[in-house]
Design a protein that fits this description.
Layout (H helix, E strand, L loop, with lengths): L13 H21 L16 H17 L6 E3 L7 H4 L4 E9 L1 H6 L5 E8 L2 E9 L4 E6 L3 E5 L11 H7 L1 E3 L9 E5 L5 H13 L4 E5 L3 H8 L4 E4 L5 H13 L3 E4 L20 E4 L4
Parallel strand pairs: 1-2, 8-9
Antiparallel strand pairs: 2-3, 3-4, 4-5, 5-6, 6-7, 10-12, 11-12
Helix pairs in contact: 1-2, 7-8
Length: 284
């Protein structure tokens, strides 16, 4: 066990590189289904062999196969029924959403992602988010920070993470914007979210509201393109873990709301449902 790669002892970034490779390959498979002219997304709620279900399963199969080479177990949306009595013994684990953004996938607006996070002691320490339609990759760990790589479909020619980082954008890279930007879900608006944003308008008369799907909301905060993302609607751990890691590595945080407002979200809980939360970037 002394030679085992761990999040604390991974000098070559093999864990993160494996997660990146898994996300890119899964994204390629999803895109093939998404762009298939014969795919009928209207059947999504009617049959288990719908394009969305097939894309979920194929993505999950690719990711679990590649992450299976690491020492850590996997908690995926596709394997959500793992008992807590088993999970509670997992100090380090992968948390995966093989296709985040169901409604966006069906709408064909491209705002869906592949999410992979590495979590230790309940804290996301590394994360990968891939946007297949845009060929955009977000990746991060706490030692090296957070990055965005546009125009990437594979790791061909990128033999190590140092090369990838040298060609990527360090996050946050969009420090200045003329308005106070709030990012919100394009598919899950709630009265509580509206009330929260209305309160923000009292302090920020120039407030700009941006709506976008999936984990891209967390990515916008990590990039510095948005100042805050309030979420007063249900999410699961696999919806946020990867984005949380990227936000943390970019200098932000994902906090509880209300009386626990200074406490970051935790993962691999008995109940995998997230509480309501606020994602904030840190202004220098």
């Amino acid at each position: 066990m002394n030679n085992e790669i761990t999040p604390e002892k991974d000098p070559n970034g093999q864990l993160l590189k494996t997660a990146i490779e898994a996300a890119l390959k899964a994204g390629k498979e999803i895109l093939a289904i998404y762009e298939d002219p014969k795919a009928d997304f209207q059947v999504e709620r009617k049959a288990d062999n719908s394009p969305l279900t097939i894309a979920d399963r194929r993505s999950n199969d690719i990711i679990t196969h590649l992450l299976g080479s690491t020492p850590y177990p996997i908690l995926s949306e596709e394997g959500r029924d793992i008992a807590y009595d088993e999970r509670r013994t997992w100090r380090t684990l992968w948390i995966v959403d093989p296709l985040d953004g169901t409604k966006e996938f069906i709408k064909r607006n491209g705002e869906f992602t592949v999410n992979i996070a590495l979590v230790t002691d309940g804290v996301p320490v590394a994360g990968v988010i891939y946007v297949p339609v845009r060929h955009e990759l977000y990746f991060a760990d706490m030692e090296h920070g957070a990055y965005k790589m546009p125009g990437i479909a594979s790791l061909e020619g990128l033999h190590d993470l140092d090369t990838l980082r040298s060609r990527a954008l360090r996050l946050p890279y969009s420090e200045l914007h003329p308005h106070y930007v709030v990012v919100a879900s394009s598919s899950h608006a709630t009265p509580e979210t509206t009330a929260f944003i209305d309160d923000l308008r009292r302090d920020h008369k120039d407030l700009e509201l941006v709506s976008i799907g999936s984990s891209l909301k967390l990515c916008l905060v990590a990039e510095g393109k948005a100042d805050i993302y309030p979420r007063f609607a249900p999410t699961m751990e696999w919806d946020t873990a990867a984005g949380h890691a990227i936000v943390r590595a970019a200098g932000g945080e994902v906090y509880h709301t209300g009386e626990q407002a200074d406490i970051p979200l935790r993962y691999n809980k008995e109940n995998l449902l997230n509480p309501w939360f606020i994602v904030r970037r840190i202004h220098n």
